[in-house]
Amino acid sequence: MVTIMKYFLCLLLTLSTTISYANGADWRKSDSDEEKLKKIIKVIPSTSDIMFQMGERYKNLYWAAKQGKWEFAEYQLEEMESLLKTLMITRPKRKETARNFLDYGFNGYEDAIENKNWGAFQKTFNNMRQACEHCHELNQHAFIKLQKTPIKGSSPALD
């Protein structure tokens, strides 16, 4: 009997929670503009969230070029640039160093990718790694080092 009562109590609690959620728990519609803004600010990606994505793109960039998947390499660069532009908006404190990285960290890729030149790519990739680490230093994160040769990419588009 106690087990059946516990079951019905659980069921009643679940139904009550579901009904209350279905009846207007969507803060995007019911909260004030001020409360909405506070909640939106809480979910803006942090610098570390964006840098984690940058790290994945960095590895995929290397392996895409290594495998001769130049279009995919170019796509990784475009995504990295987009991530940095997002960072400049979401983390104003990082705007100047992100801008500097955009100005110097991407130099040489256009020619290397257009000409499908692995040697030129390697030099440019090394320059990007150094620019990354310099940016880390400027932001008091010099302890974050990148692999000169990433062990592997993380995209299923790579072999």
Number of strands: 0
- Helical content stands at over 70%
Find the CATH topology of the domain at 47-138.
Four Helix Bundle (Hemerythrin (Met), subunit A)
Mean pLDDT: 86
Second-tier CATH architecture of the domain at 47-138: Up-down Bundle
CA radius of gyration: 23 Å
The CATH superfamily of the domain at 47-138 appears as Oxygen-evolving enhancer protein 3 (PsbQ), four-helix up-down bundle
Shape: elongated
What's the CATH first level of the domain at 47-138? Mainly Alpha
Unreliably modeled segments: none
- Number of discrete helical segments: 8
What is the H-and-E element order?
HHHHHHHH
Structural class of the secondary structure composition?
A: mainly alpha
Structural description of this entry:
This protein has 159 residues and is mostly helical. It has a domain at 47-138: Oxygen-evolving enhancer protein 3 (PsbQ), four-helix up-down bundle (Four Helix Bundle (Hemerythrin (Met), subunit A), Up-down Bundle), CATH 1.20.120.290. The chain has helices at 2-22, 27-30, 33-42, 47-66, 70-90, 95-104, 109-114, 118-138. The radius of gyration is 23 Å and the shape is elongated. The termini are far apart.
